[in-house]
Amino acid sequence: MVLASRLVIALCGMGLTVPAAAADAVRIGIAAPLTGAAATYGQDVQRGADFAAEHINARGGVLGGRKLEIVYEDDKGTPQGGVGAVQKLISVGRVKAITGGTNSSVVLAESSVTKNRILQVNAAAQADAITDQGSPWLFQINNTVSANSKAFNSYIVNAMKPKTVAYMGENTEFNKTVLDNLKESLKAAGIALVNVSTYDAETNDFTSIITKIKSLNPDLLYVSDAYPARAAQLWKQVRQLGGFPKEAMSPGVVTPGMIKPSDGAMNGIYTGEIFMASDPGDEGKAFVEGFEKRYNVEPGKGNLVIYEAVNVIADAMTKAGTDSDYAKIAQVIRDNAWPSPRGELRFDAKGRASAPYFFIQQIKDGKLVQVDRVKSN
Q1: Which helix (H) or strand (E) holds 297?
Q2: Cβ count near 36 (within 10 Å)
């Protein structure tokens, strides 16, 4: 190793290019729920990130030939787990950037560790509070809760047209913003919100809440829960108690990994998302076809946003000419448009990208089916 290091220094001193094999790999750390109630999100992250790394390395790597290496740590889907994962990635993994992120409470906790210390590109978590902090090296690929809620609530109010709505969801920052936006939209439309029920993270028996809501006979039940295993159990209990005339699930959280374990209990539910493989647009066709060929399954939003996050990090480092001058890399991210399967990504002053389209979806026969596509504002 010492001899190899001296060779690199000697070659650089003579003005010669260091071969890719002799240069250190650029390591990107990913904190994701590889175990626990949100583990299905972690599986999406791994596939999307590995797919991105394969593409980046095939086209020459990072910073003129250095290999991109992904390092994973399990955040367990908890804030404490997220903090521990990020700390380990930085101190032991010696990564040059952090990405991943599926649950908002986890990413909020992680950002207290990464702030002013390392570049962090949150791929999937949606809470507005993440990028409301004003951290200069923190970016967000997925839509915020407010952006998704605005599009989805418009469909509820104008197309579904319930007279009364009941809400239930876990007491988290993510769900608080979902509820605040829902209240605002329903009030503006003159629709009554007849119930708000919240529960803690350990809840797995929802029958008392559902029974109470059933007694109010609402036109629409709106559920907000970002943990797939728990949400599947919740909808099974809804079905056991007879269901509701219309049902909706908070946008940006429903995946095949949530639908499948529900054993059909989620059929009929409306939700929304920023991406559908069945309608990828011209820019997304190659991504969808390549992903299907690689994994024999259609890509979902979770696969897409981590693919975009890894590519933005790698391309920004190359364009900035550094893997560790985070002020320079962050400025490059803000100053440029980045190609992606959705078209060009641009980041606003808060570090947020935005999706060009929003898709209204309904679950039919265990699959997400497109109902409508609307332009994002």
Answers
A1: none
A2: 17
CATH number of the CATH domain containing 366? 3.40.50.2300
pLDDT at residue 299 above 70? Answer: yes
Q: Is 345 helix (H, G, I), strand (E, B) or coil?
A: strand
Rounded-to-integer distance, Cα 8 and Cα 241, Å: 69
Cα–Cα distance, 70 to 25 (Å, whole number): 10
Closest CA to 342 of 377, 310, 372, 301: 301
**Range 285-297 burial, b when 16+ CB lie within 10 A, else e:** eebbeebeeeeee
CA–CA distance, 64 with 67 (Å, rounded to integer): 9
221 and 327 housed in the same domain:
no
Rounded Cα distance between 222 and 231, Å, is: 12
* Pair 7, 111 in one domain: yes
From 66, 16, 1, 27, select the one nearest 310 (Cα to Cα): 27
Please tell me the total count of domains within the chain.
2
Helices vs strands, H then E, count in the chain: 13, 14
What is the rounded distance in angstroms from the CA atom of residue 27 to the CA atom of residue 65?
14
Written as six digits, the tokens of 66 are 């250095």
Query: What percent of the chain is modeled with pLDDT above 70?
Result: 94
Residue 85 is encoded by which pair of tokens? 């994962």
Q: Is the pLDDT of residue 377 over 90?
A: no
**What does DSSP assign to residue 46?**
H
Q: Which domain holds residue 304?
A: 2-143+280-346
> In the structure encoding, which two tokens stand for residue 52, read together?
């991105």
CA distance linking residue 348 with residue 141, whole number of Å: 11
Place of tokens 């991943």: 100
Helix (H) or strand (E) run with residue 165 in it: strand 164-170
Q: What is the mean pLDDT of residues 174-200?
A: 97
